[in-house]
Amino acid sequence: MTATPDTPTAIDENDSQPAIVASAAQPADSRNAQQILEDIFGYSEFRSGQAEVIDHTINGKDVLVLLPTGGGKSLCYQIPAMVRDGTGIVVSPLISLMQDQVEQLREAGVKAAYLNSSLDQDDYQATVQRLQEGHYDIIYVSPERLLQRYFLNMLAQTKIALFAVDEAHCVSHWGHDFRQDYRSLGQLKQRFPDIPVIGLTATADTTTEQDIQVQLGLDNPLVYKGSFDRPNIRYRVMAKYKPFEQIVTYIRQQDGSGIIYCNSRAKVDDLSAKLHRQGFKSAAYHAGMDADERAYVQRQFITDKIDVVVATVAFGMGINKSNVRYVVHHDVPRSIESYYQETGRAGRDGLPAEALLLFDEKDSARVKQWIDQGSMADRNAIELQKFAAMEAFAEAQTCRRQVLLNYFSQFSDTACGNCDICLDPPRPFDGLETAQKVLSCILRLQQQAATQYVIDVLRGKNLKRLQEAGHDKLSTWGIGKDQSDQYWHNIINQLIHRGYIRVDIASHAMLRLTEAARPVLKGEIGVELATPRLEIKADKPAKTALKNYDKALFARLKHLRKVLAQENDVPPFVIFN
Ligand code: ADP
Ligand code: MG
To answer: Is this structure's pTM higher than 0.80?
Structure first.
């Protein structure tokens, strides 16, 4: 996720003693919650949980709301902020998120504003002034602004309806997106014990949930936890094999728009450019891009002018686009929380949508190595545990939705019927001979080859490099001719999972045999493998023609890039060729 930097500008820090805060009394908006829902937001009824949470907050009690992305958390604090006397102070981690929310509220006629580093000094001070005068129903503020001493002192003399901490998992080390600035938000409860605090997040593992309560100092809160099931999202995991081809094939089968998450900016730029060359209306999005450009891509996506956004995790938080039809993970995320949040951006309209994870053992080994190299040992242990859960999801041989929901402590004892495992259950077979082919091939190659090389030998490819090394003379050359590359990839991964092969990340991801491989090679024990799950057939008809892409849009983006490059005196990063 993007950390939009929000360094405070120089503002006169007035450190006078705070006045005593009067506790909130009469409602500011004489309308009740239901009327506001209808008049301002134009909805006829509350979604499950909203009414209860809003009621509690209006009554001045602390609440923790755990609702999935798109569940309707914003109303849970916006309506009480309007009903209660004073201004609702909303802490939000991202500038773009604040701007979106404020824009929407203003359009609905709500007196809302934000305070962050995007404002110039004059606007900032004018807003603070109006805040003090009680002009606003709702103010969004970044945690670092809020926690400045002068600001807290100023708030102490202002009538406050409530504090809302959006994306509250950011306070917790256990959350997938810890932020130092959020850590100190516990001060709010200490300093303003009579003002209700409402924390909201889409993260719901029990540890994070409890940590949020402690960190925010919530006082005997109502904890509202909604269902995390997103029944319209079909979860699929595919062995990552040739990711670019896999992705192209996949998105050609899709109607509507999608997001492809990659784990690095370089990969984002590269994949986006390649897709664009294939004629897709794609754009890149990551935190290394200029804010204007990011906003532009986001707008184009929301208004359906771009079909595919290739992005880092910077993309998505707070994006209000209901008709995202698919989310692809080019790389495995580091936790189930992140995976759930990112895939949760698909199908918010309730119509069928898909989440596809391209999973590769080697990525997995790399992530673990990377986590292990982190500087804080206890933190690493947590991260490794979290990643282990993510891996378990990817490797699951049982209903994936059950694995997900169980992780969020929402146990379900029936298989969902809408994930790859349910739709195409694993079929076991006696894999001894298959395993022996692979293991002996690795052995013949002196355990000095990586996956693809082993497969090339197995399949008896006439490649120059094999011939030069004399490997076309090996007894294992060609013994796996009858199957595809993808088949062998899958088998090798299964053998890795089962502990017969180890990927040596430290030396070019070469495959090494473990002790456990010995009895298999000797035929002393049996090996049961699952029939590789190769590409699942598309449900939808393949797209016959690619849509004409919007020339004007790309010209504009190209221009933007040029301008940026000149301004910053750096070569433009490639999105579009
Ligand atoms: P979250 O913050 O939980 O991800 P939002 O607050 O952004 O979700 O809400 C997601 C969408 O649901 C928004 O478009 C919002 O307007 C809509 N929404 C929220 N509450 C209701 C409701 N009671 N009826 C209909 N739509 C709603
Ligand atoms: Mg939200």
So the answer is: no
